[in-house]
Amino acid sequence: MRPIELAPLFAPVDDLPGVGPKVSEQLSQLCGPHVLDLVWHRPLRFIDRRLRDSLVEVQSGETVSLMLTIGKHRTPARKGLPYKISCLHSETAITLLFFHARGSWLSEQFPEGAQRIVSGKAEFYKNTWQMIHPDLSLPPEKFSNLPDFEPVYPNRSGLGQRTLGNAIRSAVGRLKSMDEWIDPALKHQRKWPDFQSAIRSIHSDQDASNIPERLAYDEALAGQVALGVLRANHIAASGPNLSAQGKLRKTLVDSLPFPLTSHQVNAIDTLTTQIRGPKQAITLIQGDVGSGKTLVALCTILQAVESGHQGVLMAPTEILARQHANTLTNLTEKLSVNVVCLTGKDKGVKRTEIREQIATGQADIVVGTHALFQEGIEFQSAGLVVIDEQHRFGVQQRLALSKKGQTPHLLLMSATPIPRTLVMAAYGDLELLEIREKPVGRAPIKTIAKPKESIPEVYRSLERLLDTGQQAYWICPLVEESESLPGVADATTRFTDLQKRFGDQVGLIHGQMRADEKDEIMRLFKAGSIKLLAATTVIEVGVDVPNSTFMVIEQAERFGLSQLHQIRGRVGRGALPGVCLLLYGHPLSALAKQRLEALRSSDDGFELSEQDLRLRGGGEILGTKQSGLPDTKFLDYGLHTDLMSVAKKDARKFLSEDPNLTSARGLAMRNLLYLFGKDEAAPLLKIG
Ligand code: ADP
Ligand code: MG
Fold it and tell me: To test ligand 1's pocket by mutation, which of 258, 288, 322, 327 has the most ligand atoms within 8 angstroms of CB?
């Protein structure tokens, strides 16, 4: 149950004064449906409304607030001309201009001889100051109510800035002083304001473009407390004892035409130990594209199978599931292990049959999409679940797995390495294994950067490449032309252009297509009937087409480092070396230059992800989303590593003393969880 004192913040937005049905809909679209969502909506910039003493230093076009003495009104001589009011700012004349104004209203608002504070854009025109349609005008005694800095909010909703500002102001006004959840000593030491003042300052203080550090800490703490609670209540479960001798695994490894890398061996050893139980293992394996994670997964799955349980491999897409199923079937050919694959595509009798095999245990290894779990497939006994490309799955979904009454061991695999400190800060007590070493004998991908003017030349290279029977990708940042992002390359336009030159060898794939359409295109590409694929980053994950050797990334400067690294990992997966061509636009910022340079000089995903974080300072979410880290409001993974580790320690210490958050500070922390949307943890707390 949500604490009662938060009710005003979780009321729908139309609960606010002056917010009717229309405005409430616009607000919901812009910020969210609750009053609290308005509180989180941060200003883009501020208008300085402080009173000016003089016009001497004012630049024409600047927005200023002035105390004026109102003079003569001059009504327009004919239609279309402005209504003018002559005023004085001490000795300086300034004229207020109004088009299409009602004279009666203006004489009421600006009585001759009165003092008014007027704020708006002052322009120096034909040797005199004027202000057309002031933003606001007030009698002096009312001016003190106005904030010095007026926030200007991001606003695409068609709402008036004034209406939006007023709604947000009343939303923020609902924030009452709350009991503190931060450790008092820490708060004192860092000289942090309380939560309410911190939030107020982001809406009113010009300098608050640098977010109060405490809000980032609050968010980190909320995350850590939620993780701690979830872990304690949910997943500190026991896992099955999968302690087979390892005969199957040995047979498999002996049959491979290559030796395992030492990192693969290590990972397999560690996992083999972890899945012996009694504790449920939850382990994240990070390793670059091509580092051989699938084999690690399979070896671990074979332990489960040999122990009399089933092994499950989940992939984010249909095509990846099929690909994995094929690989595993081939690899286990001599082991008399039964691999089945189940995705949304399997219907009718076939589906029933596969489900039957899964339920009876005839299927030893089950490969599927995550739909498997959403529709509640019954397993005879799932001992281990491997989730490939884990960043496609939310924490929620992962936990849903372990709620099904069974608590199989969990192995998450990601090809977008993120720094260890971050993994720990974001996900808490997950075991982490890294595969940093790559199999030997793999030709490195050659990465080249060229300005976009070289596109004609690139077309010629493509022509030669396709003639040799090899395949290529062409990646663009957008799906289609966008008005709001003029000049940004899109896959649809590129596709049309490539088609002109290369005809029906060209295909198009992007995230707005239906899943079955995408699968069909990928199938054609794998089969080689499509040779050149114009795409967005949908192809980034796991897709393996060994014959594709060339990758063009258009406007490479628009992507994050880790993401670029991920994308380029699609080529050079076969015997032939891969080439990745980064096409960049102008002007290229120093930062973008550094990024492309880093990419050219390193082929190590771990190193690149660390650099990425350093270079971007976390500001751009593109890459962060990619990495699978949770979205944040204030917390910047690049900047706040220190805060994250403090929050983690504090949460852990606190929960060990008050696991159900029942002390005074614990109750305050419940508020914190709700405020930052960590509700999934809250129902687990025992009340009282
Ligand atoms: P990823 O980590 O991207 O999932 P995969 O498991 O798909 O990588 O492996 C990529 C390719 O490398 C596969 O064709 C696999 O058979 C091969 N491979 C895996 N381990 C080794 C190894 N130790 N030596 C040589 N090739 C390997
Ligand atoms: Mg893989």
Answer: 258
Structure confidence by residue, pLDDT tens digits, 466-497: 999 999 999 998 887 776 677 788 999 999 99
- Asked if 82 contacts 123 with a C-beta cutoff of 8 angstroms, the reply is no
289-324 burial, b if ≥16 CB within 10 A, otherwise e? bbbbbbbbbbbbbbbbbbbebbbbbbbbbbbbbbbb
258 lines ligand 1 (CB under 6 A): yes
In sequence order, which residues have a C-beta less than 8 Å from that of residue 676 and are 6 or more positions away?
218, 219, 222, 223, 633
Using CA positions, which residue lies closest to atom 24 of ligand 1?
439
* Res. 686 pLDDT band, cuts 50 70 90: low
pLDDT tens-digit map of 191-225: 999 999 999 999 988 775 567 899 999 999 998 88
Q: How far is the CA of 391 from the centre of ligand 1 (A)?
A: 20
Ligand 1 and 293: CB distance under 6 A? yes
The bridge status of strand 83-89 relative to strand 115-125 is unpaired
Could you give the C-alpha distances from 230 to 227, 395, 682, in angstroms and in order? 5, 11, 9
Instruction: Note the Cα 316 to chain centre separation in Å.
Output: 17
| Nearest bound ligand to the CA of residue 437 | 1
Arithmetic mean of pLDDT, 535-561:
82
Q: What spacing in Å lies between the alpha carbon of 357 and ligand 2's midpoint?
A: 26
